[in-house]
Amino acid sequence: MANTQLSDATHVLVYIALHKNKQSVKSSEIAVSLQTAPSLVRRIMSKLKKAHLLNAVQGSPQPVLAKAAEQITLQETYLAVSQKRNLLNVDQNTDMLCPIGTAIPKVLDHYYREIQTAAEMKMAEITLQDIINDTKAREKQFDSIK
What residue ranges define each of the domains in the chain, with the CATH number in brackets? Predict the structure, then answer.
């Protein structure tokens, strides 16, 4: 099962950034866009607030980014919502009497750590503003099709 926490958290931040001039942005509105429950959106927003990426006052439907979108990286968002920081996980339940079953977990763990490091380095280069810009461009394409 794929973990969509980073995608959902990024969606929340982009939604809030693009609706910053709106009187209020309720978790129920964001939930409709995400096709999820408002309680999940509130949990995500809580994590983003703890990571100092979002300012929100309980009971007030006016969340705002805690800093400029150019200063928020995808890596910060990932670290804010990821409980386990592994993009890939090695199956440790292999047959230890089999030479391959014994070796594969250690071999894959080495490669997976390299992949994790490379992915996090790339995430550090991508800002929320990059994602906002790309989202706006896609919105224009979508609107032109309608």
Answer: 5-145 (1.10.10.10)
